[in-house]
Amino acid sequence: MQVRLASSTAPALNANQPLREGRVEISFDNGVSWGTICSTHWTLREGNVVCRQLGLGYASMAISSTKHGSSHTNPWGLVGTRCRGTERKLLECSREPTYPAVCDAQNRNVSTVACVSKSADLELGVSDIEISAYLALVPMTQLTCAMEENCVSKDAYVIRRTNPSAIRKLLRFSVKASNVGNADVSPYANYKDWEWHQCHMHYHSMNVFATFDVYDNRYKKVAQGHKASFCLMDSECNLGVAPKYTCGNTTQGITAGCSDVYSHVLDCQWVDVTTVPVNKKYILRVELNPEYVLGEMSFENNGAECELDYTGEILTTRVTRCKRKPLLI
User: What pairs make up the disulfide bonds (predicted)?
Assistant: First the structure.
């Protein structure tokens, strides 16, 4: 299967200059005919595979749109592509088990990609989670800001009406996000769209930078995890790398070779496990960039899973055996 990028809007380029953004087209007959792609999930995972196959580096954008032509003038030739992101070629990717419902006559979108030669690459600090994790018992009177940001389970808001000092059991831990790529991590949203957090008196440039969840051994979610927004900054850097980003209103990001560390003492660095059944073993899962809004070299180092021995008691609740995991497909 051959792959190329094409566009109905791109300016004319030198013959030796490859097109780095456009609709993705595939051919099964050595270039005699070409078709576009429709998928339920067309993400930066699939984009990375396309850019890799074309020798164009990494995907900075991968969306379904009509920016570079529509399915009416550029019919689909492939539907249901699903990649892990590590494949060398699009042909090695899997397919959705059933025909994608989104690929109907009303859908004019085609899969598009933009490729860049350099990219950031977030790596989750696995050992940081295990070393820092502990159970804390905190009265809701100390969780005012956290409750404004929906960092506790839904039942807490009901309980607060009659018992505002009720105790919440919070599994707290630190999260270290290191940029091991060769380009800086930059917030996907324009700084004018960043969200001001009055309680913390700073802007959050990423609404969903990380997710924290607890599952049972059958992978059923048992604790209502939350999507953590972050103020991105250079907390610590490798030797010889100068920090560039602060938690400012226009200067957020993570420099290549630096890390953003969110300590366990900060608001919302937890999972609310108050209603989780005690004396059982669970899985704590942490993910960075879970919605693929940031382009990365790889998504294999964005997650971690740990064993959680939850007793409901501070002294005996343990988080152990944390292992690196890719983002869930």
Answer: 83-93
